[in-house]
Amino acid sequence: MTWFTGDVRAVVLSDTHLRDDGARRLPDPVYTSLRDADVVLHCGDVVEHGLLDELATFAPVHAVLGNNDVALRGALPERLLVELAGVRVGMVHDSGTTKGRAARVRRLFPDCAIVLFGHSHAPVDDEGVDGQRLFNPGSPTQRRMQAHASFGVLDLVDGRVTQHRIVILD
């Protein structure tokens, strides 16, 4: 578990699918948000290590292993727990199907106020079991069947998530 104290702004990413060849990059609004980040949380499908190095130039990075992160096996955990401003945050790439997700995530991370996940590329910002927040930022680079690409921003203060928002990219 990692501890960050004080007010914390987290930029939340998932499913970026960026290769180290530099052919593609994150959209400019993501970089703008990264400039104000205290921490970056990546929910998997980073694909290669270069993006993690780049994100670390903005803020400390915590990431979990996604199903497409073959090159990162052994370097990233499948699940992670971090504490930010007194808020316990759980991270996993694939939270499973929508049906039963809230209860399943609660069992995986019973002490977490918020659980971050990815995999589907579909943004989610819902309340789960006993008020636990379920948060998928979507993907800033591959919208798939979504109308827009997206990423997330969380503000955490004094043991509370004070802001949780999905940022829609045009």
In short:
Helix content is 13%, strand content 34%.
N- and C-termini, Cα separation? 35 Å
| DSSP summary, beta strand count | 11
Mean pLDDT: 95
Instruction: Assign the structural class, choosing from mainly alpha, mainly beta, alpha/beta, alpha+beta, or little secondary structure.
Output: mainly beta
Number of helices: 3
Oligomer: single chain
Portion in strands: 25-35%
Using only CA atoms, what is the Rg? Answer: 15 Å
Query: Going across the major beta sheet, what is the strand order?
Result: 1-5-6-7-9-8
The succession of helices and strands, N to C, reads: EEHEHEEEHEEEEE
Q: Looking at the structure, what is the overall shape?
A: globular
Strand count, sense and barrel status of the largest sheet are:
6 strands, mixed
Helix content: 10-25%
Give the low-pLDDT segments.
none
Describe this entry's structure for a reader.
By secondary structure, this protein is mainly beta. Helices cover 13% and strands 34% of the residues. The strands form 2 sheets. A 6-stranded mixed beta sheet has the order 1-5-6-7-9-8, with no helix packed on it. A 5-stranded mixed beta sheet has the order 4-3-2-10-11, covered by helices on one side. The protein has 3 helices and 11 strands.
From the structure above, extract its key features:
single chain, 3 helices, 11 strands, 170 residues, mainly beta
What is the element layout, followed by pairings?
Elements: E1 2-4, E2 8-13, H1 28-34, E3 39-42, H2 49-55, E4 61-63, E5 79-84, E6 87-92, H3 101-108, E7 114-116, E8 124-127, E9 133-136, E10 149-157, E11 160-169
